[in-house]
Design a protein that fits this description.
CATH class of the largest domain: Alpha Beta
Helix content: 40-55%
Strand content: 5-15%
Structural class: alpha/beta
Radius of gyration: 19 Å
Shape: globular
CATH architecture of the largest domain: 2-Layer Sandwich
Order of helices and strands: EEEHHHEHEHHHHHH
Largest sheet: 5 strands, mixed
Strand order of the largest sheet: 3-2-1-4-5
Number of domains: 2
Distance between the termini: 41 Å
CATH superfamily of the largest domain: Ribonuclease H-like superfamily/Ribonuclease H
Number of helices: 10
CATH topology of the largest domain: Nucleotidyltransferase, domain 5
Length: 232
């Protein structure tokens, strides 16, 4: 049985190929152990990034680089585990992969779960799916948002509430399943049969880049089946 490990990263920016991880944190609820390390990115931290997470150049100046922290993180995540992060598919895992490649570290092929993808898939009734919004919905006490370990502990509580008594194996299987979509899952036409959604609205969604998001690939495929021309 795979055990969950919740994790989060703070970075110098949004581009894995160019930006760097400056903090990584994780929590193993079965072992009741936490992992949290600041990382010296060996580059300047943009003020825009500092405004979000509060981490400054001075704070990481004496910290180890990713090659040391990454190896410790791999040890922390030893065994049959599932790594869970909010927006993992679009953010955290890409930074882990990029940093490991730069550092010459070989990470195992961990199973991974994106809790944002889960929330969008199984809580389409909600208008937003940010971690802090979900925290409010599930009545989780507030903490210091945007520092890695604080967000990890919130994620652990939120995701545990969302999946209830499902095992990690069931969670991974359900997220990987390609369920057919016959009703609009969000927006002004939420709940309306797809074949009744106006073409103008579908075109507007396409122009907004909605169908480019991985979590909406099944919706795009469903529209492609019922329209005369593929959704661009």
């Amino acid at each position: 049985m795979k055990r969950p490990i919740y994790y989060d990263t703070e970075t110098t920016g949004l581009r894995p190929a160019e930006d760097r991880i400056i903090e990584i944190a994780a929590y193993d609820p079965l072992k009741k152990s936490a992992f949290c390390h600041l990382i010296n990115p060996e580059v300047k931290i943009p003020i825009e990034a500092t405004r979000i997470h509060g981490i400054t150049d001075e704070m990481v100046q004496q910290s180890p680089t990713f090659i040391e922290v990454g190896q410790k993180f791999a040890v922390f995540c030893e065994g049959e585990v599932v790594l869970i992060a909010h927006n993992n598919d679009q953010f955290d895992q890409h930074f882990l992969i990029a940093e490991a490649k730069r550092a010459g570290i070989h990470f195992p092929e961990w199973s991974m779960v994106d809790s944002l993808k889960w929330a969008r898939k199984y809580r389409p009734d909600l208008p937003r799916h940010s971690l802090q919004f979900l925290r409010e919905i599930y009545d989780i006490p507030v903490n210091t948002a945007h520092r890695a370990l604080d967000d990890v502990m919130i994620l652990y509580q939120v995701f545990s509430a969302m999946i209830d008594d499902l095992s990690m194996e069931q969670v991974v299987t359900l997220l990987a399943s390609k369920e057919s979509i016959d009703k609009m899952p969000f927006g002004k036409y939420q709940g309306k049969p797809l074949d009744k959604v106006p073409k103008e609205y579908i075109s507007w969604l396409s122009k907004q880049g909605v169908f480019e998001k991985p979590e909406n690939s099944a919706l795009k495929a469903a529209f492609d089946k019922i329209t005369s021309s593929p959704v661009l």
